Amino acid sequence: MPSPATDRRLVILTEGHSGPITAKTANSVLRYQPEQVLALLDSTKAGKTAQEVMDVGGQTPVVASLDDVPDANTLMIGIAPAGGQIPQAWRAVILAAISRGMDVVSGLHQFLSDDAQFSDAAARSGSKLVDVRKNDEQDVAAFQGFREDCLRIHTVGQDCCVGKMLVAIELTRAMQQAGHDCKFVATGQTGILIEGDGSPIDCVVSDFISGAVEKQILENENHDILFVEGQGSLSHPRYSGVTLGLLHGCQPQGLILCYELGRTTVHGMGHVPLKPLAELCELYESMANLMGPSQVIGIAMNSRAATAEQAEAERQRVSEELGLPVCDVLRHGPEDLIDAVCQLKPQLALG
Amino acid sequence: MPSPATDRRLVILTEGHSGPITAKTANSVLRYQPEQVLALLDSTKAGKTAQEVMDVGGQTPVVASLDDVPDANTLMIGIAPAGGQIPQAWRAVILAAISRGMDVVSGLHQFLSDDAQFSDAAARSGSKLVDVRKNDEQDVAAFQGFREDCLRIHTVGQDCCVGKMLVAIELTRAMQQAGHDCKFVATGQTGILIEGDGSPIDCVVSDFISGAVEKQILENENHDILFVEGQGSLSHPRYSGVTLGLLHGCQPQGLILCYELGRTTVHGMGHVPLKPLAELCELYESMANLMGPSQVIGIAMNSRAATAEQAEAERQRVSEELGLPVCDVLRHGPEDLIDAVCQLKPQLALG
Description:
homodimer; 351 residues; alpha/beta; Rossmann fold; 2 domains; six-stranded parallel β-sheet; 33% helix; 17% strand
């Protein structure tokens, strides 16, 4: 697991993949650790700003070559594609960074440190290869119960790439600022890069998913509230197993269902229609309640691609349909969801 | 993946763990490949027969030492405990087998071939170390659909260790004998040892569970009927993620729910009550139907610990409660479940 690494001066590699969803690791690091990012590396977009190509990151430049950023000490792989393999075309850039003595940080399934060419080069240059997803989890869940006063809120999804991590981080930060004792529990490579700890549960051997999550909760249940990052969806043809193992491992009392306005098919699988939100609320509650009392307390809408008017209309429609608070935490602020969290644990409203 | 290895002359190591459930790998190999087994190795039960300590295996002897079975050429690890670690006390026996040049076959999560002491010894003696669970699955599911005429029947469970593999094998063999074109699709280490192929899905990296299963189906969908071995349970606090990833990966049209008569708590977790069968039927159908039409077509009861009278009363009670055929495939034969399979695909009844 990487340390928070506050001395990192990053170039983020997004070559040919720049964009808010295609390069979601880059997007989130730009949002939550902008002070670390010197540049994006994408020769197809060189000369633009991060804001222009990623919708976040302000004036951070997009450059064509490592030569343009001599002060950088770390190359970060900025994408997390399905399957998590290293694009063949990126190998030369990674090797160039290693030969300069730069560290390389990756959240891919294909580990840099298992690649003989990369690890030989790193041994010569003294570079560190950091594979955020690499883990050795081998503990099954004990299911002995968590501290009763620790409220666990879990962001779950209609799909992947809808903002489950972002919502968990935004709620954590907003409630911390209001004086609550909260922690964000990261369960994916980007969340771990931002928080500095967590467990990459989509890369854990499948018998140990729930055990790995349980361990994260036990380590952090001294806090009053945990916001546990969700993964995938119970209805995702690829990742539903990860989603359920995570749901059962953290036994959340409260669920926040996340979705993107206007999306109709599974991300990257245009032949698979998404399930309706009402059906998903029922499904998540049924599955969560197998392990302990749990309810959906609110809906987090990602309205990135919508106008203010469209977002407002959708917010009202969904709220009326489901009888739940609905908001886009970036557009509307997280207050409605924070109220829902506080209602679940009345004493917190005072604190 | 091991070959069927018909020249194997096995000693199965069950030291201190002999018993039909504690040594479930040994139990199943004794049941389905008795011709390969020369002896069980358990010094605490030496002098008895396999039948006496395992409820299966007839006159196969239980011995105290490898010296008692000079003809054996392979040591097989006969247990599959939660977590899958090698009992410390077994290391000496495994090393002794390796030093004799015997191959060692293991289905544990802790790989023999990753252990420096074992692999060094094997390199010296020429022994083969076969880790059945070792895999390199890195493909996500494509979910492009299966051959329409391939009927997929999936054995699912109220719990682990209730007989999901056994039911799938018994149904496959009975229907093969009746002339149907069937195959057993193994998804766990013991099933793979018996069938000679399959995927150890509880040891696959969790993002790739459904993809690994899908690959098994695509490789075998030329058959008319596949019986896909289930794992764990949707309500199992440790393994539900594996169960759901498997369920969604094979998209079964028919489900057979397996349980053990008299069991009230999760195997090995006495503090966790089991969920009622009726609730589980609904849950499995809800989750399976996310990917395609699917229904529970019958109940497989494991009545190992019951009298004939108790088993008959339970069979009637459950059948009336759920409106489904119920049988113990070993005690009553598999006919009722075969009828249910044939009803799901009427044209098969003729063939």
